[in-house]
Amino acid sequence: MVNTLRVRRAERRVTQLKLAQACGISQSQISLIENGDAEPKPEEIRKMAKFLRVPASVLFPELASTAVSPMSDAPVAHV
């Protein structure tokens, strides 16, 4: 399975540390999420999507179909 978060982060040339700082979480948490060892919280998903300027459902398509989806498909401009 392709890790979309890792791919999108690399496309933007963003380090795990920079993404973590932007999202208010640790670099190790980003690593765990990318490796499939942790599931991000809805607010973390929103922050990652906003920072990477992609719809949340692109980063985590497997979560987009859940009934309690935190996804917003509207990309938000990077601030």
Query: Total number of β-strand segments?
Result: 0
Radius of gyration of CA atoms, rounded to a whole number: 11 Å
Low-confidence stretches: 67-79
Count the DSSP helices: 6
CA distance, first residue to last residue: 31 Å
Mean of residue pLDDT values: 83
Major sheet attributes: none
Helix and strand pattern: HHHHHH
What proportion of the residues is helical, as a percent range? 40-55%
Your description of this structure?
With 79 residues, this protein is mostly helical. It has six helices and no strands. It has helices at 4-11, 16-23, 27-34, 42-52, 56-59, 61-64.
List the helices and strands and how they pair.
Elements: H1 4-11, H2 16-23, H3 27-34, H4 42-52, H5 56-59, H6 61-64
Which descriptors apply to this entry?
0% strand; disordered C terminus; mainly alpha
Entry summary:
With 79 residues, the chain is mainly alpha-helical.
